[in-house]
Every structure is written in structure tokens, then in C-alpha cells.
Amino acid sequence: MFKRLTLMTAMTVAVIGGMAAERNNPFLEPYNTPYNIPPFDRITTADYMPALEEGLKIYRGEIDAIANQKATPTFDNTILAMEKSGELTTRVMGVLMSLSEADSNPELQKVADEAMLLYGSTVDNVMMNDKLFERVKYLYDNRAKLGLSGPRLRAVEKSYRDFTRNGALLSAADKEELKKLNNRLTELYSKFNSNLLKATNSYQLVVDDPAMLSGLPESTIALAADEAKQRGLDGKWVFTLHAPSRLPVLQFADNRDLRRQLYEAYTTQASSGEYNNYPVIGEIVKTRAAKAKLLGYPDYAAYMTANVMAKTPENAENLLMQIWRPAIKRVDKEVAEMQTLADDLGDKITIEPWDYYYYAEKVRRKKYALDEDEVKGYFEIDSVAKGIFAMAERLYGIHFTPIPNAPKYHPDVKVYDVTDDKGEHVAVFMTDYFSRPSKRQGAWMESLQGSFIDPDGKSQRPIVYNVANFAKPTPGSPSLLSMDDVETMFHEFGHGLHGMLTRAALRSQSGTNVDRDYVELPSQIHEHWAFEPSLLKEYAHHYKTGAVIPDSLIAKIEASSAHNQGFTTTELAGAALLDLAWGHLNPAEGETVDVEAFEAQVANKLGMPRQVKYRYRSPYFKHVFGSDGYASGYYTYLWAEVLDADGFELFREKGVFDPATAKLFRENVLEMGGSEDPMVLYVKFRGHEPSVKALLRNRGLDDEAEPESHDLKTPGGK
Questions:
Q1: Fewer beta carbons below 10 Å: N end or C end of the chain?
Q2: Helix, strand or coil for residue 267?
Q3: What angle do CA 216, 219, 225 make, to 5 degrees?
Q4: Active site residue 361
Q5: Domain boundary among 254, 269, 284
Q6: Is the Cβ–Cβ distance between 485 and 491 less than 8 Å?
Q7: What CATH number has the domain bearing residue 390?
Q8: What average pLDDT does range 484-492 have in this prediction?
């Protein structure tokens, strides 16, 4: 998952001169660190609000100066000036919001909530500044006469859209109403995230009978024992809702009741009691619907898709349904296979959702003789990291060197200097891979500092980081990754490459500042290298013996690549369709939103198989209700997969490490960011527009597809 805080400017840091003498606040003085890495060791919780207040004061002054100047609007004195504004604010918010997700505590979260309200209110005022909008509108209306083209034209058009989408054309009264709605959403997102984190961390499943551990990998048992010890329960085993604890239980535990308990706890988290997100979701849906109506859209889904590749929710739904129908057909076959195996084993059960992972693993072992617990032995986390760096070096000629004594916000963080073949600095890359209570669930990429190249030649290179929730090593047990974990690591690194390799001149167009249904292309296409035989030979070495992964095991991995794709695709597409359905909902005044009933209604309409649930149920669907980042946009993972599956077929054709193909991808996708229309960039790389057929082939679902499967529907496309 790519996570991005939407800021007026791209993530960038400038030296704030003259303030260090006045205040001993790390944000208000030069960092004096390698490549301007934030001095995490000197930053305290008390530093954020004073620095933010100072930053917002400066920012408001900068905006007023731009809006009130007498000079005729030009790109440089308006658009570029806005991009350069708010640098101190961006500096503070970048660190604060990053730590509030990756290493939070109650005190920090309270500050983050306060900061977001203050920051959001300021941004609202900027986006509703009539004089500033007049200047942007002048440039937009006269863009042809002014000879604007390329990235500058795109920046003007996007700026105009951003202003109008944020209320610039509303009446004064409606602007005030929009501000209230935005503030309310900020509060609700914070409440949703707080409830989810607390609900996740409050749950524990204590096991005191070793017989209940039958089937579990040694590493999972060791992790559960260590968790119990940390909680003062020596001699017992504790399982939590975090993925490194939960997923192995669902996949390997012979005890069906253990699987059921953990599955039900996970799928009902944050849906009752003190941390119940149901009423929060209801308020979010109502507030979003009111916002969309105020801005002239029929519903929130229409509002959120109007500014991306899809353009309409109907285009997104069309794509999803082309995938949904083959996926549920495959589920029927997968369930039948699992039920037959269960019957043959004499288990006398009917397959339920908490059985899916378990029997799918048994089917995989039977059909492909592939034991994932055996495979994990070759995927020790440091070895996988070496594989990722090797991929980047072979494709793009970049190298990763640890930075000794670099500032870091947690001991688990690792920091690297990224250089090219000439030894020139490209970026700083940071990793934070291990699960802990202070970190939210999931995996994501973010930037602490963005990139730009000013007309005067001044430039700045990015600071990018990856976060995940893999199992932390325990005494005698290293961090061994599942195949899904390995793909996740390559996925987030793909986002990282998008941020690190950018060459876009404008801050707002650099790196991952692209249409959100395009942002997953760089991440997902790099997943394809995770299990490439030639790369596996480089990095997949057994953690005990150092032996290279054998060809026989690689062959099994390849043969089973489409295993269980009915389930995987159905739960993903189902969640995406649920998300869009929420975006279409316009509750009546005073109506209570019944979250469970709505989820069931959508599932029934889709004909969702009983044995498969949404990848994320609404109370913990952070993509959708933790912010507006992926709201009515979770479809983007499958939308981008149409692009990445089609694009990787070119690598397959030319060679997976073919220099010319890698150069095409780097120059037209990774380096360009959002400086050109995404479909234009994709065609420059691939040579043609993509087809959904490539995705179906990649997932092994092409034999389930309808005879007339259509191409991706985009404006100007087929």
C-alpha cells in the first residue's frame, strides 16, 4: 500500500535560517544530518505544535503575498511560488504524521489529531482564497495564449481542478459549510484510526495447552511464546490480530477452534464495545455524501473518481466485474477441491471461511508438493532485502549503502544511501519492517522529503521509507517471510523506487504524486521479480545451511503461482466493490447507517461465495475510512494490475532484466511521476494500451473469463 498525506506542496525541506538562535527546536534550525534526514533523536513531542504554528504563520504569509501581488499572473509567480510555500509546515507534518502511524503513543496521537485539525483548517482557507484562485483561473483560462505546455500546462490544469474540487467556486456560506464538513471528516478519521489501533492491540488469544499448537511452524510458536513472555504469561502462548501471528494460525493450525476464534476476532475487530467503529463509519458516510452534494456531485464515488484515470465509478466497476465473474467461478472449484480433500481426510466438516487458508495450503501440498513452511526457510528477511537491492541494481544501476549512525525514529529502522553507477547520490532509503504495538497494521511507503529541480538549477533528492509488519526475530528464531510477505516487500519497494528515481522538475509531480489509480503500477510490477528463478538464486539461501534454493523448489513455486487465486481475487475485488458501494450511498437525513446490513446487502447482490469474505470489513478498512486516500479508490490495486500484468509481459518477451526495457520503464514511468497523462506514459513504455486479459492470464483465471472480455475503459482508450 502507498500511503500519502495530501499536502499543498510535495514533501520537501528547506533550511530555515535565523530561527535557531531564537528557539532550540530541531524543526526551526538546520538539521546538520546526512542528506537532511530528520534528527529523530532530538525531536520531542513538545516540539511539534510550536514548530507547526510557526510554519503555518509563515505559510499564510507566503500565500497572502502570492494572492495580493499586483503583477500579472505567471506560472513562476503563482504556481511555482505556491509549490515552494509551506516548507516548514511540510517539514513538521511529514515527521509527525509518519511517526503517528509507524511509532505512535497516546501523547503523540493527541498532538497529531490537534495538528491535523489546525493544518486542515489552514489548507481549507488557502483553497478557498478568492484572490489566489483568481490568479490560478487566469492562468487556466489563458493557458493556450501563454504557451504553456508539458508539465507546466498539466500543473496549471491540476491546480485549477484542485481549487474547484475544494470549494473555490462555492458561495461564502457554502465555503464555511465545506470547512465544517472537512473538519468533521478529519475528526472522524482520527477516531476511526484510534479505535482500530486500540482494538487490534487489546486482543489476545491465550493458549496454555501445547496440543492446540499442532501444525504450527516452529517460528510461529516461538513468536507466540515470546509474546506471552512480554505480557507476563511465561509458559503460555499468545496470539494477536497482527498478521505475523494471525495468518500462520489460519494457514497451519490443525485445531479448528483455534482458527475459528482468531478468524472471528479479526473479522469483528473494532465493531463493538469501547472501540466500535460502526457509528464512526455511519458519520463518515453521511459527511462524505454531504460534501459531494455541496460540490455538485451525485455521490462521493463520483467526486473521488472524477480526478483520476477511471473518471467515473462506472468505469471502475466495469473493470472489477470483468474480474469478479471469473474469480467467483474459480472459488467454486477451489472449495470443491478443499471439501473433497477434507472428506478424504475424514475431517467431517463443511468448509467455512476460517478453513479456507488451512485447506488451501493442504491442497497446495497435495497438488504441487509445495510446503510453504519449507519455503520460508529460504526467505530470511535480510536475504530478501539483498534480493530487492540486487533487482534494483540489475534493472536501474542503483546501489544501497548503509549510513552508519544515521538518525532513526526506532532501533528497527535501517537507513541507506542510494547512489547511481557514477557514485552520485540518488536518494535516502529507510526500512522499518517489524511489527510492534506502536505501529498500525499493514505495509506502506512514504516520503520524508520530496524531490524537485528548480529553474535556477537548485535541486533536492528524496528521503523515502518502507514500513511493514513482519514477524520480529526472537531468540533462536530469525524473521522468516511467507511468500505473501516477500511479495509485499517487493511491492512496497516498487513504491520506493517510484519515489527514489523521480526526475520530475515540479515538486507536486515528483515521485508518487500521480493519479491514485496509477500509483500502484510501479509497486505491483516489481512483485513479478520476487520469484524470478535467476533472482531467487541470488537471494534465496537457507537461513540454517546457506544452501541456494533448489531448482525443484523453484519449479514448485512457479507451478503453484496461480493457486488459490479465486479466493485471493474474490476477497480483493469484493472489498473494492464494497468500497465503491459505500461511495454511492447517500443516507437520508436522520437515517442510521447499518454497517453490517449494508455489507451483507452488497455481498448478496454480488453473489459472493459463502466461504469468502471481504479482504477488509468496514470497521478495519483503513484504506477507505482511515482517510480519504483510497476512498472509492480501493479498485486501484486491480486497475493497476491490468497495467502491471500487461507491462511485465514486455519484460517476459524481451528478458526480465533486459536493459533497454528497464530503461523504457524507468524513463517513462519511474522518473516522470505525474508530469504527463498516465496513459500516455504507459503507452510510451509499452507501445499500446493495456487489456484486462493480461491480468486474467497472470492470475490463472483466463479459462474462466467470458468470451468477450473488454479492454480497460479509459477516456481516449479502446
A1: C
A2: helix
A3: 85
A4: no
A5: 269
A6: no
A7: 3.40.390.10
A8: 97
Active-site position among 29, 492, 571, 676: 492
- In this predicted structure, the answer to whether residue 715 has a pLDDT above a threshold of 50 is no
Local structure of residue 409 (DSSP, 8 states)? S
Whether 488 and 433 share a structural domain:
yes
Length of the chain: 718
Q: Is residue 69 part of a domain?
A: yes
Distance from C-alpha of 390 to C-alpha of 348, rounded to nearest angstrom: 48
pLDDT at 141: 97
Provide the β-strand partners of residue 206: 238
Whether 654 maps to a domain, the answer reads no
Q: Where are the alpha helices (DSSP H) in 38-149?
A: 45-68, 81-84, 87-102, 106-127, 130-141
Asked if residue 524 and residue 380 are part of one domain, the reply reads yes
Q: Which residues neighbour 680 within 8 Å (Cβ) at sequence distance 6 or greater?
A: none
When pLDDT is cut at 50, 70 and 90, the band that residue 474 belongs to is: confident
Is the torsion defined by CA of 662, 666, 670, 675 positive or negative? negative
Q: What is the span of the domain harbouring residue 500?
A: 376-531
Backbone angles phi, psi at 348, to 5 degrees: 50, 50
Dihedral sign from CA coordinates of 494, 495, 496, 502 = positive
Residue 371 DSSP code: -
Strand bridging mode 425-434 / 463-470: parallel
d(CA 299, CA 292): 6
Q: How far is residue 410 from each of residues 130, 436, 477, 488, measured CA to CA in Å?
A: 44, 11, 21, 21
Q: Which helix (H) or strand (E) holds 430?
A: strand 425-434
Give residue 605's pLDDT band: very low, low, confident or very high (50, 70, 90).
very high
Sequence-ordered list of residues with C-beta below 8 angstroms from that of 220, at least 6 positions apart, any chain? 245, 248, 249, 252, 471
φ/ψ (deg, to 5) at 16: -95, 100
Coil, strand, or helix at residue 480?
strand
Same domain, 159 and 70: yes
pLDDT, tens digit, 9 for 90 and up, residues 155-205:
999 999 999 999 999 999 999 999 999 999 999 999 999 999 999 999 999
Cα–Cα distance between 348 and 355 in angstroms, integer? 13
Are residues 153 and 211 located together in one domain of the fold?
Answer: no
Ordered DSSP codes for 641-692 = HHHHHHHHHHHHHH-TT-HHHHHHHIIIIITTTTSS-HHHHHHHHHSS--BH
Q: pTM of this prediction?
A: 0.89
Provide the Cα torsion 484, 486, 491, 496; round to 10°: 150
Owner of C-alpha cell 509546515: 89
Give which of 689, 718, 682, 572 is closest to 638, Cα–Cα. 572
The span from the CA of 297 to the CA of 289, in Å, is 9
Please name which of 495, 339, 337, 342 lies closest in space to residue 3, comparing C-alpha atoms: 495
**Residue 455 pLDDT:** 85
pLDDT in tens, 609-632: 999 999 999 999 999 999 998 999
Asked whether the predicted pLDDT for residue 33 surpasses 60, the reply is yes
26 vs 41: CA distance, rounded Å:
10
Whether residue 371 lies inside any domain: the answer is: no
Say how far apart CA 275 and CA 296 lie, in whole Å: 34
339 and 713 in contact (C-beta within 8 Å)?
no
Verify that 120 and 211 share a domain, yes or no. Answer: no
Give the span between the Cα atoms of 466 and 468, in whole angstroms: 7
- Cβ-in-10-Å burial (0-12, 13-18, 19+) of 607 comes to exposed
Task: Please give the grid coordinates belonging to residue 84.
Answer: 515552494
Look at residue 325 and give its three-state secondary structure.
helix
Number of structural domains, the chain? 3
Residues 6+ apart with CB under 8 A from 309: 515, 517, 518, 639, 678, 679, 714
The average pLDDT across 211-216 equals 97
